[in-house]
Write the structure tokens for this entry.
Amino acid sequence: MEKLIIGNLKNYMNFSETINYLKQIEDLDNVIICPSNIYIPYFLNKKYKVGIQNILENDKTCTGEISAKQAKSLGIDYTIVGHSERRINFNETNNIVNSKIKEALKEKLDVILCIGEKLEEKDNAIQILENQITECLKDTELDNIVIAYEPVWAIGTGIIPTLEEIEKITKNIKDIVKKIYNKEIKVLYGGSVNSSNIKEIIELTDGVLIGKASTDAVEFLKIIEVVNS
Ligand code: PGA
């Protein structure tokens, strides 16, 4: 099965850094890049695919927001929803995430749903994840959705779960989805993925969602090379 590699550029780079980065990733194929909204047009019509980092949960008028319809009309194929940075900073609940998913699917954007437990929830992770899955995916079709398991404590910290934990939890997520929806779903891992740990992680998962390391073109290319080798 082909592994999914997704780069989440967040708000890391300024304009000149973005232009420089674009030159270095020009030949990339078979990856999905999620740039900062204002730079998205520079990433379109390349061999790689483009995702947006968030969309509005409805089609109402709202200053400062981007609707799924607008994203789709520009040529964007994917949207991340439910990233923990948004859940934490903007109080995006599972119900809001569920609305975002419905809105995305209505406009034919494929969904990268982020779920993950906080450090203080670690002992109870499976219950937390099951709850996130049940509430976020309520009344949705799963065909165009992948799940990214991103423990909140692993994002941007350089700390990753043990390989046993990654294997066990991604399998648990698949089992939960299978139990509730009787369908298979791709489960990626995200949180401090880099060129030193990718080899082991990619063997255990359907792909990776990469933040910081994807903003360094040389590092990102190294990661991709390992995945494709
Ligand atoms: P990180 O971020 O790779 O910088 O830890 C991952 C993410 O937030 O998706």
About this structure: The chain has a mean pLDDT of 97.
